[in-house]
């Protein structure tokens, strides 16, 4: 009899639970399994979870076939609606309109820091030793050489900015803007790579080479910066000098007709604010200008420390591309 009573009590409990007769105050969450409540709840959820209107949706309204599905989130972070001055949607997620700029091409491409002491000579010799294997491998394949160069050149700014960031936290002191300056350098170098990718697709062995070289260089530069930041910046200064020389050779071959002067990709036109009819020569010219500015910035950082000062004592040239 006790088993029959317990079974009937349990069945009654389940029936009342399914009808939604239990309240949260009794320790059981109220369930809504009625058909009419389910349909109304679904309608409310559809209203609440309706994907936000995005820039891509605006483009599709105008006849654009590309449709981007918006991510539904409970956190209140909606995709920004950014457009150009003419009202057209901004198509790039890797950079924003306020991060674009017109490159300063009034540079001295032959500028060279003469190695005067042992540290400078060691840094210069290191760069020269690293230069010849890459030149032998790529020879006149400028596009592939430039892509490898940019995958390496984007590492020092990120490593230096990260270590200066940690140093600022440890010492409870300002950085003089050098964290931002070095991270700007890394981002600028990465945008060089994003531009070159639009023009050439690296082969599998070139990707494998990038993977190996970047892994070795990142760790080596990390240790070098920990040991001597002034040496690390001097090495980067000489690396950027070689980058300027490499892009100068690239421009010479374009002018001679050895390399096709193809139209500039759209990402380069928007990033450097170039004219719509710009060509590859214009893109390489502004990239070379950026490399020259990075050369000056890193030699300047090394000079500050070689003279017995710290980077935070001198304001960093933020925005000096």
UniProtKB/TrEMBL annotation:
The keyword DNA-binding does not apply. It catalyses: 2 a ubiquinol + O2 = 2 a ubiquinone + 2 H2O. One of its GO terms (biological process) is alternative respiration. Gene3D superfamilies: Alternative oxidase. One of its GO terms (cellular component) is respiratory chain complex. It holds the Pfam family AOX. Belongs to the alternative oxidase family. Homodimer; disulfide-linked. This is Ubiquinol oxidase. It comes from Anisodus tanguticus.
């Amino acid at each position: 009899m006790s088993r029959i009573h317990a079974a009937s009590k349990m069945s009654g409990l389940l029936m009342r639970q399914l009808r939604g007769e239990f309240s949260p105050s009794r320790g059981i969450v109220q369930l809504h399994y009625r058909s009419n409540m389910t349909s109304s709840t679904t309608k409310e959820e559809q209203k609440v979870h309706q994907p936000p209107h995005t820039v891509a949706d605006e483009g599709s309204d105008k006849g654009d076939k590309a449709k981007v599905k918006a991510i539904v989130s409970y956190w209140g972070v909606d995709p920004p609606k950014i457009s150009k001055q003419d009202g057209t949607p901004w198509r790039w997620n890797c950079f924003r309109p306020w991060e674009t700029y017109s490159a300063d091409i009034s540079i001295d491409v032959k500028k060279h820091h003469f190695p005067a002491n042992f540290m400078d000579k060691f840094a210069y010799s290191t760069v020269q030793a690293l230069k010849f294997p890459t030149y032998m491998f790529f020879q006149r394949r400028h596009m592939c050489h430039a892509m490898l160069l940019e995958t390496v050149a984007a590492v020092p700014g990120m490593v230096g900015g990260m270590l200066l960031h940690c140093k600022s936290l440890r010492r409870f002191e300002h950085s003089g803007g050098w964290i931002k300056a070095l991270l700007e350098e890394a981002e600028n170098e990465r945008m060089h790579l994003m531009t070159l990718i639009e023009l050439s697709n690296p082969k599998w062995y070139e990707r494998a080479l990038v993977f190996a070289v970047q892994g070795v260089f990142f760790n080596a530069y990390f240790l070098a910066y920990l040991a001597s930041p002034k040496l690390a910046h001097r090495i980067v200064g000489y690396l950027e000098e070689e980058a300027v020389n490499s892009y100068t050779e690239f421009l010479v071959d374009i002018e001679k007709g050895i390399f096709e002067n193809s139209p500039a990709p759209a990402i380069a036109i928007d990033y450097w604010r170039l004219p719509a009819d710009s060509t590859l020569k214009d893109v390489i010219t502004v990239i070379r200008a950026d490399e020259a500015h990075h050369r000056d910035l890193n030699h300047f950082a090394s000079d500050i420390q070689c003279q017995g000062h710290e980077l935070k004592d001198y304001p960093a040239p933020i925005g000096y591309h």
